[in-house]
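Researcher: Let's do a round of design. I'm pasting the structure tokens now; please hold your answer until I've finished.
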């Protein structure tokens, strides 16, 4: 019998990372606060040294929460501030922290939300690791890593936990990610797949109509190589045994790295009924595209060197071909970035091997 069926609901820490996106944070939190999950849930928002006074804006909203009529409506999504009973207009207790020190009593002071100032832009992995560290001493059973550029179905967490409880070997569970601006289409069914032939990653079920989401996730789970970090439930045992996310990527490849480190020890799972609407890139939309693209090329070399070194020559070859295609089409910026990556292959490979 599952813990939910027996009335013992596991505890969950919801970890979100913000960088200059307080408006998205508020919309996301307002939907996440309306989850129908009956267990202990505490929200930890890590601010990566935002320059837009995100912490101040969040505190102001929590003092007097208000529904924003510009927010899109989705079937299954509820907002705390839209509660007709008036509960949603009551202040939200917030605890402010500086740094990643573990806290043994999260929520004991009546707070629903802990906001942590990370002290710098630590990237996706670094920010999430701060949240995991803060929550680590409070005895949570699960951690739900959730992008701030999402809104969530009111049953999303319930389905994630239920799927995780079906097997002790499950370490990570993904949601059905739907496009916020085109909710009839799927961005990803749980996670993605790594193709060894060319070292490209594709998302499971990408751009399928929502009606194609399977009731039985087993086939997709067998083909998945990682869970997409926009909505990822991980067990406390997974974090304890595998360790935190690898921070040297800064952005991109962290989820795949985490899953690869756990391969053979934990299974990846997918909860089809856990629906999350993703703005796609919103939580990193302020990142200059050249910077992001540069990381994608360089992190690919680091990842392959770390886990699949025998495929490094093939990866270099495909990057060279891609660079020539960009040159042929006069796309100079990506061609330049690949060229720089190829010149740094040796140092990037060394970095990968050092932390393998």
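Researcher: That's everything. Go ahead.
Model: Designed sequence:
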């Amino acid at each position: 019998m599952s813990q939910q069926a027996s009335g013992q609901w596991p505890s969950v820490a919801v970890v979100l990372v913000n960088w200059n996106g307080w408006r998205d944070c508020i919309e996301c939190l307002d939907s996440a606060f309306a989850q129908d999950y009956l267990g202990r849930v505490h929200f930890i928002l890590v601010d990566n040294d935002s320059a837009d006074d995100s912490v101040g804006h969040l505190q102001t909203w929590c003092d007097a929460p208000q529904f924003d009529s510009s927010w899109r409506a989705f079937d299954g999504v509820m907002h705390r501030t839209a509660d007709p009973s008036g509960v949603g207009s009551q202040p939200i207790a917030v605890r402010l922290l500086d740094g990643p020190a573990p806290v043994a009593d999260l929520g004991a002071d009546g707070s629903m939300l802990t906001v942590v100032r990370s002290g710098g832009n630590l990237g996706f992995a670094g920010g999430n690791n701060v949240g995991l560290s803060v929550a680590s001493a409070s005895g949570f059973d699960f951690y739900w890593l959730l992008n701030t550029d999402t809104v969530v179905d009111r049953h999303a967490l319930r389905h994630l936990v239920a799927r995780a409880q079906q097997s002790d070997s499950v370490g990570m569970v993904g949601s059905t990610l739907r496009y916020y601006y085109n909710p009839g289409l799927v961005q990803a069914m749980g996670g993605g797949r790594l193709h060894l032939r060319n070292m490209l990653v594709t998302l499971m079920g990408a751009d399928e109509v929502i009606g194609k989401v399977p009731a039985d996730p087993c086939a997709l789970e067998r083909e998945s190589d990682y869970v997409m970090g926009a909505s990822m439930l991980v067990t406390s045992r997974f974090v304890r045994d595998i360790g935190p996310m690898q921070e040297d990527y800064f952005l991109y490849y962290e989820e795949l790295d985490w899953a690869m480190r756990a391969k053979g020890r934990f299974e990846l799972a997918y909860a089809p009924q856990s629906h999350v609407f993703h703005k796609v890139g919103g939580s990193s939309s302020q990142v200059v595209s050249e910077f992001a693209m540069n990381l994608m090329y360089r992190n690919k070399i680091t990842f392959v060197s770390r886990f699949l070194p025998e495929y490094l020559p093939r990866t270099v070859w495909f990057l060279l071909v891609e660079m020539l295609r960009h040159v042929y089409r006069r796309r100079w910026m990506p061609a330049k970035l690949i060229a720089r990556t190829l010149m740094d292959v040796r140092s990037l490979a060394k970095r990968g091997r050092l932390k393998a």
